[in-house]
Amino acid sequence: MNNQRWLAKNFFMFFITWGIFLPYWTGWLINDKGLTVSDASIIMGFGLVARAISTILIFPYVSKIMSNKNVLIFFTVASLVTALLYVPIDSFVGLFIMTMLFSALYPALLPAVESSAATLMQQGGIHYGKARSLGSFGYVVAVLIISMITGIYGEQMILWAMIFGLTALLAIQLMPAPNVLSLAPPKETGKTLSMRGLFDVKSFIVVLFVVILLQGAHASYYNYGYIYLQELNVNPFYIGMILNVAVLFEIIYFLKADTFLTKWKPSSLMLLAAIGSTVRWILIYAFPNMPMFIVSQALHALSFAMAHYAFIRYISQALPKEQIPNAQGIYSALAMSLSAAILTLLGGALYEVEPSLAFLGMVICTVPAIVLILLTKNRFNY
């Protein structure tokens, strides 16, 4: 089994489905299932909470009793079954329950794939960045394909596209996997496998807090980037292209991540990411126009991609294999879910005052991240 090829296929196919879920699921609930905007927002908001709880509790637990390969199969099958159960449901209560279930199961595939990647990195011989870049490429492909399909056949195709994508992902999971991913986890259930055991690694809590700040700082961009471009009177036809510029630079960084700045420590990469993120939000505030927004998109390679890669490199170097799922669960729950949810409220309040302030407000995370890294990187040597 070619480890690199296996990982690349998993990233690509998962992010195909992620490119259906993230941008289109709320719209599908509104346009196909007939919910109001407020009802869909309530459902997706609670879904974010379900996602956080699942990735910090359910995913690590499943990872303690199953091999990496079986964890992927379990969550893929569960997600596919749940997606199929959506078909006959149209009521608010029914859609609320199904979305809570789907949000608890499907997003757990992200830390599952990332955990497999970190495990393979420990074994050596794989290029994480190259494999992850195919994931970003898959996301772009999905966004473009779904936009065309829904334009022709309507929003009902979003669910069927998800079902098809999960079926294809399951087919990949049923193929042979690298041997290390098929090994059952050790039987011990002591401190070494508990969440508390993570914090025996003194640098982990610092690194975790840094990535919570850095990933949370994207809250305004993810939630208000689209409507901000509308405020700038950008033609809707071009908005999707402009937003995909960030993903393009993300892909470029991941392609070069395994050879670019390889001698830099994770702390140095995080520091550069924090500086790039700060500059990004200040630029959008200081120059509220479309050309500067496009220029700022290039900094996504630092603010998101470099920060994410630094964390993956850190856990693959600093943690034992058995603790990687716990670390991924906490990272997914706190850095990729809850921090963004909380900072969305701040961004929304600032947006009502002045749209560009929503982006400047994110330096409330990036500047403390810079200070924290400078104060701790030598002390904890991460």
From TrEMBL:
It is found in: Cell inner membrane. Residues 6-359 form the Major facilitator superfamily associated domain. Signal peptide: none annotated. It is a multi-pass membrane protein. Keywords: Cell inner membrane, Cell membrane, Membrane, Transmembrane, Transmembrane helix, Transport. It holds the Pfam family MFS_1_like. The chain crosses the membrane at residues 12-30, 42-62, 71-89, 95-113, 134-152, 158-177, 198-217, 237-255, 267-287, 293-312, 333-351, 357-376. PANTHER family: 3-PHENYLPROPIONIC ACID TRANSPORTER-RELATED, BLL5896 PROTEIN. This is MFS transporter. It comes from Solibacillus faecavium. The lineage of its organism: Bacteria, Bacillati, Bacillota, Bacilli, Bacillales.
